[in-house]
Amino acid sequence: MRRYFIVVDDSWEMEAWDAIECAFPQNNYCSRVMITTRNEKVAKRCCGTSGIIHNMKPLSEPDSRKLFFTRIFGTQDDCPSGFEEVSCAILKRCGGLPLAIITIAGILASQQTQLKVAWEYIQTALAPELESNIDYENMMYILDLSYKHLPLH
Q: Please, what is the average pLDDT of the chain?
């Protein structure tokens, strides 16, 4: 009588679930499998008839700001004066998604000096349509932007 709790993180394809599902014993020992995915079809396939789908909500504005500034400055209280407007615009385009926020904050944190012009460049580089539609392609755009701005070392 062994129970298990397994987390499968960021599953994108139904075939991946089909491949691993058969490895789990079919018993009534209250075991659990939790899958994270951005694909609703994968979620429905994984939960079957007895599972529950929990749709995550984006971070609130205060939580987004806290994550953003803590990643850049180590605390949410250290935003330089004059950066409030551009930081609000950047956060709005991240749409409350932690991966987008951390990625953009990582770009800004890796800079040798905190120049407002660099923040404005990042704001401009983030397409305005991200505010209302953070999908796979847009998230890949943000990750690509992050890759292109890696420090030379």
A: 80
Q: Can you give the chain as a three-state secondary structure string?
A: CCCCEEEECCCCCHHHHHHHHCCCCCCCCCCEEEECCCCHHHHHHHHCCCCCCCCCCCCCHHHHHHHHHHHHHCCCCCCCCCCHHHHHHHHHHHCCCHHHHHHHHHHHHCCCCCCHHHHHHHHHHCCHHHHCCCCHHHHHHHHHHHHHCCCCC
For residue 66, the model assigns a pLDDT of 93
Q: What is the pLDDT of residues 37-72, one digit of tens each?
A: 888 888 888 887 778 999 888 899 999 999 999 998
